[in-house]
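Sequence in, structure out. Go.
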Amino acid sequence: MKRALNFNAGPAAIPLPALERARDELLDFNGSGMSIMEHSHRGKDYESVHREAIALLRRLLGVSDAYEVLFLTGGASQQFAQVPMNFLGPGRSADYVITGGWSEKAFEEAQRVGAARVACTTKRDGTFTRVPTQDEVSIDPSAAYVHVTSNNTLYGTQWHWDLDPKGRPLVSDMSSDFLWKPFDVSRYDFIYAGAQKNLGPSGVLIALVKKSFLAEARADIPVIFRYATHAKNDSLYNTPPTFAIYMVRNVLAWLEGIGGLPAIEARNREKASLLYGALDRNEGFYRCPVERASRSTMNVVWRLASEALEDRFVAEAKTHGMIGLKGHRSVGGLRASIYNAVDVATVKALADFVDEFAKKNG
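Output:
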């Protein structure tokens, strides 16, 4: 079978070794005579997978015992509401840095729960082309927390510097660039990331929460929405998405096997350099709307002179086995999501096609 060159934004590409491992274990996991999907989440066979996934994540990121590692459902969209439900108490306000569509949605949900304010927005003329500088972010010294979105899938912007939250707890939605490179977890009080981009299939979300921050969470909300409930029960309070977590285990094992986060960062930077290089070589024919210092290494966006030409690009790319290149419906244009699982050869093929298409149509 010939594999597609997959540039989907999420659900996205999964490393082939992780898929092959699942294939080989699908009917008979660990000699049990049944799939991992058929095992009880309370049984030893599934428990071993659950524990291994957490251990792998701790090793890869150097996550200390000061943090709980949680598997949650509902995706990032649920966390937009669940974060303020837990940490935005009566009489408090939270700060939000708005750098794209998903951070806008997170802010809107927080407003439905309690008081929230915009610490900064980079929206200009209805779009986002950059992340802010530190001086542009005005943080309330009494804010319950400061919320940022590390990478913006719709507009192709990404933080390449660390925001100073001025002593306030820092919360980050890292759904679309989690584990793309090493970073200092200790700077954050709460991190959440949907799995369907860099971690595995859709259906599960990973959260890292500092225990001291968790101790401040509200206890007057429904039990199922309390992060403390899931921490106390090792993410097994109710039946978790066991197969999705199993696949996350496979992806994390693959990531560790290829050299961990330093190795994947080098590969990701090479991929981004290849694709941006091709677009920049043909500047004038292609237009990258993002300021260079804010360009995402995960989601590369660009435009052509007309939507008709963009549609032709997508159609011709498909004949070369490339899928997922149409931009998000809310912004249009073209987008290549080059997450961890997308290899260098796949991006090189796209970069070559970018050159070829410009030569033919320029």
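Check: The two ends are 35 Å apart (CA to CA). The longest helix spans residues 260-281.
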